[in-house]
């Protein structure tokens, strides 16, 4: 009797595993950066490396390709002409996170984020001191503000330092370069910021970020981001990308999410965290993605940004508000079902031996 029960159980496990075989592993990311999607998929699928390795490989591909000039070295510089990088990686199995903000002089921010996760108990390291940590861990200090970054910088200077993210300072930042000093406080003046923000032209070439989520055949979920941040940002600015729950979030059994767009706004609402918790309560990925943008657009009607969501069953979707620009496209890498099946049966075997 009990033997039949065990056989039935094994059979059910097998069927369940077989069903998930056609879906996992799966890689989705923001924007049509298909080189990155393929690199992540190749890493977890052909090289049989982990879901975390897939995130690193995918994000690093974009750093090397300098995707849209918004990821990696030689991208959009800050007000002083320097390129600084933000990145994060999250392990939805252990809830470990490694991230870096305003990282100077290192090309691969996602690898440094991984090093923070692997070699420290911390979550986030920033600035020059994060660079020192990276060098200790074997990374090479280089100039990442060369080439395209200098051309962008010169153009910005010629354009009277526009777009510009200062407010309430003199001289008028809408037509003048710095240095700036604060205006005397006028208590009767309402904050002009909400309206002016939409005129900064936040679009595909100056926004940010690749955000990526990977799920392996065992249901382990990882997320990651990497970017050089908003073009012409004020030196020291860190965007949403390295902030847990803003740039991305992953939690086994619930799902993963990653954002792209106006990070200064998005990080005030933790959309990735909210979306994953919603999916954990059974809300479908499409509803979750659009629901988490609602409070943002309620406060900032001209907000530009998007979020990708994927639940633990591998169903993914996107919601976004980006004026006149293509929406981020999630791309699935699960194309070769035969190969997937083989990998899957292997993972079934691991489940058995582990138990
Ligand atoms: C994708 O990779 C190919 C070959 O490695 C490269 O030639 C191409 O420029 C990359 N695409 C982008 C958008 O960077
Ligand atoms: C670090 O970056 C700065 C700003 O781009 C650059 O001037 C400097 O040469 C870089 N340092 C090294 C060691 O490459």
Automatic annotation (TrEMBL):
<keyword id="KW-0732">Signal</keyword>
<feature type="site" description="Cleavage; by autolysis">
    <location>
        <begin position="208"/>
        <end position="209"/>
    </location>
</feature>
<feature type="binding site">
    <location>
        <begin position="260"/>
        <end position="263"/>
    </location>
    <ligand>
        <name>substrate</name>
    </ligand>
</feature>
<dbReference type="GO" id="GO:0003948">
    <property type="term" value="F:N4-(beta-N-acetylglucosaminyl)-L-asparaginase activity"/>
</dbReference>
<protein>
    <recommendedName>
        <fullName>N(4)-(Beta-N-acetylglucosaminyl)-L-asparaginase</fullName>
    </recommendedName>
</protein>
<comment type="similarity">
    <text>Belongs to the Ntn-hydrolase family.</text>
</comment>
<dbReference type="InterPro" id="IPR000246">
    <property type="entry name" value="Peptidase_T2"/>
</dbReference>
<dbReference type="Pfam" id="PF01112">
    <property type="entry name" value="Asparaginase_2"/>
</dbReference>
<feature type="active site" description="Nucleophile">
    <location>
        <position position="209"/>
    </location>
</feature>
<feature type="signal peptide">
    <location>
        <begin position="1"/>
        <end position="21"/>
    </location>
</feature>
<dbReference type="InterPro" id="IPR029055">
    <property type="entry name" value="Ntn_hydrolases_N"/>
</dbReference>
<feature type="binding site">
    <location>
        <begin position="237"/>
        <end position="240"/>
    </location>
    <ligand>
        <name>substrate</name>
    </ligand>
</feature>
<dbReference type="GO" id="GO:0005764">
    <property type="term" value="C:lysosome"/>
</dbReference>
């Amino acid at each position: 009797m009990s033997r039949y029960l065990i056989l039935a159980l094994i059979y059910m496990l097998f069927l369940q595993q077989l069903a998930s075989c056609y879906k996992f592993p799966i890689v989705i990311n923001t924007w049509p950066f298909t080189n990155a999607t393929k690199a992540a998929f190749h890493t977890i699928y052909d090289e049989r490396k982990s879901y975390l390795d897939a995130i690193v490989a995918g994000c690093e591909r974009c750093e090397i390709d300098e995707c849209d000039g918004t990821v990696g070295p030689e991208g959009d510089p800050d007000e002083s002409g320097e390129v600084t990088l933000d990145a994060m990686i999250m392990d939805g199995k252990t809830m470990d996170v490694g991230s870096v903000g305003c990282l100077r002089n290192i090309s691969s921010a996602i690898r440094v984020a991984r090093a923070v996760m692997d070699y420290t108990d911390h979550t986030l390291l920033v600035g020059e001191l994060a660079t020192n940590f990276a060098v200790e861990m074997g990374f090479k200090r280089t100039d990442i503000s060369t080439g395209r970054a200098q051309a962008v910088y010169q153009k910005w200077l010629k354009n009277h330092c526009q777009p510009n993210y200062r407010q309430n300072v003199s001289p008028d930042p809408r037509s003048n370069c710095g240095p700036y000093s604060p205006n005397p406080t006028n208590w009767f003046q309402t904050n002009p910021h909400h309206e002016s923000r939409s005129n900064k032209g936040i679009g595909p070439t100056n926004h940010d970020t690749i955000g990526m989520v990977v799920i392996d055949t065992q249901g382990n979920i990882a997320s990651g981001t990497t970017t050089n941040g908003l073009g012409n940002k004020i030196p020291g600015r860190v965007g949403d990308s390295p902030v847990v729950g803003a740039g991305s979030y992953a939690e086994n059994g619930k799902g993963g999410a990653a954002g792209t767009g106006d990070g200064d706004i998005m990080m005030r609402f933790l959309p990735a965290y909210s979306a994953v918790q919603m999916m954990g309560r059974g809300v479908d990925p499409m509803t979750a993605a659009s629901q988490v943008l609602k409070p943002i657009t309620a406060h900032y009607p001209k907000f530009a940004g998007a979020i990708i969501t994927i639940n633990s069953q591998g169903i993914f979707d996107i919601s976004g508000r980006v004026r006149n620009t293509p929406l981020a496209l999630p791309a699935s890498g699960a194309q070769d079902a035969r190969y997937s099946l083989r990998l899957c049966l292997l993972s079934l075997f691991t489940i058995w031996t582990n138990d």
